[in-house]
Amino acid sequence: MASARVHSIETFGAVDGPGIRFVVFLKGCNLRCRFCHNADTWDPESSDIRTADELLSRALRYRNYWGSEGGITVSGGEPLLQIDFLTEFFRKAKEAGVSTCIDTAGEPFTREEPWFSKFLELMKVTDLLLVDIKQIDRAKHIALTGKPNDNILDMLRCLSDLKKPVWIRQVLLPGWTDDEEDLRREASFIRTLQNVEKVEVLPYHTMGAYKWEKLGIPYPLEGVRPPDAEAVARAEKILARSRAADS
């Protein structure tokens, strides 16, 4: 029986998938995004270890509040780093008739075995994925996150082939992810996918900066201000073209 290394739990999540969600935040992430607002989830070690049965039992206490669209979302950190637990948890959730959603950056994705077969099994019990595209440009992605994005984009292609519903999220970070040419490239890439139900622009904010300070890590975006409404609207307009083929 796989266990989860848990960071925290949110019982009434309203921004992590459709409806009201029971959200489990797991520990561990290999990316080091400059704008990360959950830097305290990077370390994979946790004093809070839970089994799938324990988490599902707690989640089901809130089922009456979920409505027809709500359910369970697993976020992080990076939930795909705990794929064995995630598969067991979601399998039991689906047996209970619960909607399942993963909030992921896709960094662990590989087509190498045995991981890829595990991923395909996980997808059988996953209803929706929220996927961040940090930056479409490979070099800029490395500068922003510390890792390349080749396998992340490949995961999105794989999900398209599987016809697995996806919501794409783009954090709009001034000077890093707001270049119009990059956004147009991203829109062109999204148009190649057959499974994208929604594209969201999330304005950068500084609400997680204090966590870097608590961890003793210099905040790399000191002085960077959130984008203004005009910049957000411009990005939304460009990325809206990614779904032009559907309209």
Structure description:
The chain is an alpha/beta fold and 247 residues long. The protein has a single domain (3-246), classed as TIM Barrel (Alpha-Beta Barrel), CATH 3.20.20. The chain is built from 8 helices and 8 strands. The chain has helices spanning 52-60, 83-95, 115-124, 138-145, 150-162, 180-191, 209-215, 229-240, and strands at 3-13, 21-26, 48-51, 71-75, 99-104, 128-132, 166-172, 196-203. The chain has an 8-stranded mixed β-sheet. Helix 2 (83-95) packs parallel to helix 3 and helix 6 (180-191) packs parallel to helix 8 (229-240). The longest helix has 13 residues, at 83-95.
What labels would you give this structure?
247 residues, TIM Barrel, 8-stranded mixed β-sheet, 34% helix
